[in-house]
Predict the structure.
Amino acid sequence: MANARQIALAVLYEIEYEAAYSNIALKSALAASGLSSEDKAFATRLVYGTVQYKLTLDYIIEKYSKLKKNKISKYIFLILRMGVYQLEFMDKVPDSAAVNESVRLARRYGHGASAGFVNGILRSVVRGRGDFSYPDNRDEYLSVKHSFPVDMIRRWIKDFGDEFTEDLLLALNEPAPMSLRVNTLKTTVNDVLSEIDGAKTSDLCADAVICDGFDIASSELYKRGKVTVQDVSAMLASLALAPQCGETVIDMCAAPGGKTTHMAQLMRNKGKITAFDIHEHKISLIEKNAQRLGIDIIEAKQADSMKYIKKYEQSADRVLVDVPCSGLGIIRRKPDIKWKTKESGIFDIQLSILENASRYVKSGGYIVYSTCTIERDENENVIEKFLREHSEFVRTDITDVLPEKLRRDTAKHGYITLYPHIDGSDGFFICKLKKR
């Protein structure tokens, strides 16, 4: 049976060379692994950490290797990455274990010379501690130090400034806390707090509970639909839209249904929500979530929200437009996102979905546009272009639906961006529009 490091190596190979998503590949591998819970936790940290810091790890390897990356076999290079990650970022792993286990893997996935090569590099890394230097150029320093693409660093420094950017990078490299949304259709926040050791309320959302080390998969609270996993930033999108009992609501990009079911909860399960998603297999996710939470006002439909459907013309009191995006606000949950190239034409996709939403909402109705990114091109710039072409829409004050700490000046103008290092949430953008 494969051990934790072998499982991690196999998953890293899928991520690096087969374009697999880290969370999906890891979940599948661990389910079939037969590993203990402790070994699963070790493999998980090894995978996510190696992905998260791969630029830094590669920089270190290149400092000590006479061979260029393209001259080293794929498995051996990944073994080196894993080994350096254990040496530099996993304090509880002894240096001897990190080196010796990496050498064993090299023998298994390479040959004798590969094992010697890995042994030599890793021992050089251990000896070189304290003598390691980062690039002198500020952009490149931040890129290597925090392991982010240098182009991203430069873009954020331009948009946010140097100090803000470094604080943001530090926060995006920290583990994200688990937040649960309490299903107030079935229970109360106090009841949930009493059942989860160490849980606490959130200062961003009244229905949110923050907890660490909680095993959600085996939880009776989850199985009985009393809680669901959702970051507080995503909860704020539904709160900003503020759907009312008996209203008709459309969710343009709904799967897996977190915001959809939250809106139904806010509506006290009275009214109607039509939930669109382009992927057929995700429709069942929405339906299963709704069923678990005891919600029956959601009608999930497979539909491409970029394509106009005349049936829904001016049919909705409110429309949620949580568009596909680069996802850079949730890097701390999915570190491989920062290494993926931004989808070509994402701005046009977002604008197209928002355009259709504008036709579905009634006069006097509301739209909330949201993303899980902090990129201005996908946030403020989309809204500004839309408003230039749609004089019938205006941004509307969201101050009243936000907690005190989020009542920034921009909220009066209908929008807010949340940042991990400031708000303790995922990076997220919310803008509320009213159709006059």
Notes: The longest helix spans residues 37-52.
